[in-house]
Amino acid sequence: MTKTHTIDFDSFFNIINGKKQSSATATHAIDSSSEGQLWEVPVATNEDIESAVTAANDAFPSWSRTPVETRKELIAKFRDSYIFYLEQFIKLLMTETGKPHALAKGEVLEILALFDHHLQLQLPEEILEDEERTITTRYVPVGVVAAICPWNFPMVLSVGKVLPALLSGCCIIVKPSPFTPYTALKIIELAQYIFPPGVIQALGGSDSLGPALVSHPRIHKIAFTGSIATGKKIMALAAGNLKRVTLELGGNDPAIVLPDVDIAKVAPEVAAGCFAFSGQICVATKRVYVHEAIYEPFLKAMVEATSKMKVGKPFDSDSVLGPLQNKMQYDRVRGFVDESKTQGHRFALGPDSATTGSGYFIHPSIIDNPPEDSKIVVEEQFGPIVPLLKWNDEADVIARANNSNTGLGASVWGSDRAHAEDIGRQIEAGNVFINSSAKTTSRALFSGQKESGIGGEWGSTGILHYCNAQVMHVFK
What we know:
Elements lengths: L13 E3 L2 E3 L4 E5 L6 E6 L3 H20 L2 H16 L2 H12 L3 H19 L6 E4 L3 E9 L2 E5 L7 H13 L2 E5 L6 H10 L8 E3 L6 H7 L5 E5 L2 H11 L5 E5 L4 E5 L5 H13 L9 E7 L3 H13 L19 H16 L3 E4 L15 E4 L6 H4 L6 E7 L2 H9 L3 E2 L1 E5 L3 H9 L5 E4 L11 E2 L1 E2 L2 E2 L1 E2 L9 E9 L1
Parallel strand pairs: 7-8, 7-10, 8-9, 10-11, 12-13, 12-18, 13-16, 15-16, 18-19
Antiparallel strand pairs: 1-2, 3-4, 5-6, 6-24, 11-22, 14-15, 17-21, 20-23
């Protein structure tokens, strides 16, 4: 395996029809640890959008007819090229997201797992035969896909859309978040050395870029990860031509802690599920229900575990938690802190430890048993502030856990695994974890219930969301 090209990690471009493109207008993201400006990124124009959409539609007939095994060979070459740049991607990801090294490395390596998983997949085919006919059900690519990607996991949640699209025979245009455009633009640039022009492209830009892609009549599917509010707008706009959509949206994920847990073991694990990446994970635990018999010692143990999480700059070797990724999210979390203080909620940890000076740093806060109808319980905070709540009746706590318009993830913790699984089956969520915080895998379908989304990604069936079913009836 030999590196045949060199990627420059200090300049960034839109990728249109196999070429790097600049623009008369540029923007830049912000370093969340210093509030300084990062590299310039070109803002895609309406002409750029049309060029990319035309290139994708021109490439689609040939790419969609390329045998699946040939497409896999190119995906494997893409993987091999990516391996040469792991360290550069880790550093770039740390810079644009504020993730400490261990978390950024984990995301960069997860890309390899995504490659390996998709290289194992096959498009299913079903054949039924009777005296009159042979009926074959195949799955054919939906067409041109626009991937609208979020800022919290800009690599995994871009590549996790790119690979099933490519494998199914779709062409794809990636729109990274303007908060974190760099790693996605760079990995799409890397792909140009592997795939035919127009098959995989990337456009960076302003807030107007997303609606332009969603409403475009020659884009056939939107794959979106982001907020519920934006997901609803996408679904409404896509209805204009019944464009296919996959929407992976927010969640207010509950954890139910049963009275038989090993507190010393479980409390730190629950804390990690709440505060990893400062809570900026769609399946992070957002509210923790602890049985009243163990509530006080569990609260104490969770405070102790959380207090040991060092908050610092991403390149500091001892940092466990970095800054909030952007000013918008920082202000939102500060709003939850201020609201909880105004309402007189008791803080078992925080909130006055918030870092001052440059950077969007907020130390973790734990709120001790606030009212069930308080904002910190009802709304997804997406940051390092979490309520602990008491319960004593199992049916009641299940109802409280399900009392949400969302249903993305949940966890149940208990020494009696069968009992915990029984409770888990009653939780209205697409992803339920028993005796673990959320640990997703590309091998399993990731989807949400209620307002947490439509469709799904990954697993053995996620690729089918990039396909239309075609049933051929051959009469004898």
